[in-house]
Amino acid sequence: MQVSSKLIAGLASLAVAGAGLAGSSALPGKAEAVTKGSGIRMNQVQQIGSHNSYHRELSPNEQKVQQQLNPGSVDLWYSHASIPQQLADQNVRALELDLYPDPAGGLYTWPLLRKATGQGPLTDPALAKPGIKVMHVADFDYNTNCHTFVLCLQQVKAWTDKHPYAAPIAINLELKQSDPNVVAAGGVKAPPWDLANLNSVDAEIRSVFSEDKLISPDDVRKPGLTLEQSVLTKGWPTLKQASGKVLFYFDNGGPGEIRDLYRQGKPNLEGRAVFTRGPEGEADAAITMVNDPRNANQAEIQRLVKKGYLVRTRSDEPLSTIRANEFSRVGVALASGAQYVTTDFPVSGMASRYDSDFVADLPGPLAVRFNPVSAPKGHRGAVAER
User: Fold this and answer.
1) What pLDDT, on the 0 to 100 scale, is given for residue 3?
2) CB 143 within 8 A of CB 56
């Protein structure tokens, strides 16, 4: 989301002055436990994830300024529970984190919107320390339930340590930069995602998760094969092998500087902690995203899932879904077979403040179910995490 450029002058002056209804039907079949000999693989199940899992809306005074600058900012007025609560109480098994580099520390401690509303800097001491930070839009939509990448990961690890038989947690990482219009108004310009900052993503992941708790490209790739060939011909780890572990993949996709730098000298992501979104047919292709599952995209997702890729799609947009009363997308997303279906409303009640009962969850509700497209024949219904 970009802030309207014609309103930037207003933000600058303020800163100076201030110093489903789930539309699907349950698949037939009773819940089954994944036994030791079942061989059910990661790509043969389906899980619900949260979109912008860290996100908390700003204060009413800050929201007024947001809306003055961009009327579309009302779509930012949603909040998620803490990550541990999402995992424990909301059946969420996939997360999304937006990352900003901060190698020297302290870059994001005094957001422009706080200056515009006469507030001082943020006081969380973790923000002053070097390390990757988590937020939606620097200076403009900065509130979060865990300010640093490491803190978010520590929360995930604490939960998985207590739930070693839970389905693997997939974490989508979007590497972000400052909005140019906010920078023009006096906001912070984030450092580029150069090789050093990309390496810090791996380093911070491995500072929290040991290799035996991480599903990395090296864990999936087979000798003599590319990563893509391994996924498509040998398959993903089984749930038994992957239970209690985490998998990371980049939201940033296709050919481009970030992907090129990250796989420089590592065409199959050798030694890397994060999967890229390599285009189909490339050595690093394994996980991809088709965010809107409707129309022809549903068949495209089904094709990719049948081939063996992991796919993420979205069942809704933050508040435009609510305003339009367009709830059928949930059922379309689930029927697509995308392994990770992400939402801003994973439990009943989250949309009630907008006079809506919308919710996007697996029929049941469940944490994990057999995939309607890729599960072995005869496997339907819930997958028990034990």
Assistant:
1) 56
2) yes
